[in-house]
Amino acid sequence: MADKFLDLIDGVPTLKTPVASSSGSGDAGKIPKLDSNGQLDLTMMPSGIAGDITTCACSEDLDAGNLVNLWNDTGTIKARKANATDASKPADGFVLASATSGDSVTVYHDGVITGLSGLTVGAGQYLSKGTSGAATEDVSGHTTSGNQIQLVGKARSASQIVFEPGEPVSVA
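Request: output the structure for the sequence above.
Response:
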């Protein structure tokens, strides 16, 4: 019942559902609904007030919370898992929803990565070399030539990273 509101239509009290996303002017005057993170959908925002995002196809399966690299596939930008063992795959952003190879994904370039676990609050988070698309707090094993060390943010809680990527540093 919490996802409904009471409206008066032609004098008749009517339960209605708020809109979760907007398709444009046809939704003018409607009451918005917050998403699962307690935020408005980006489609509800006016031009110029939106997250820094890229929408593109993914070239491999992605899990919610993956750090991703954007790359040029014969003139088409695509998303793939970032990895510290390959200098051509730094973290450019992250995804909040899982996707199968070929699906369209929304890549966020700033914001909070949610749905993680086991993070140390306040600890720096770095692009992992062991698990593609993941972050790690321990970069002691990143010393092999060709690896990169990239700070991707800081743990705000045991399950969230504030994404603030640094420039990758290559190990010689």
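Residues 53-170 form one domain.
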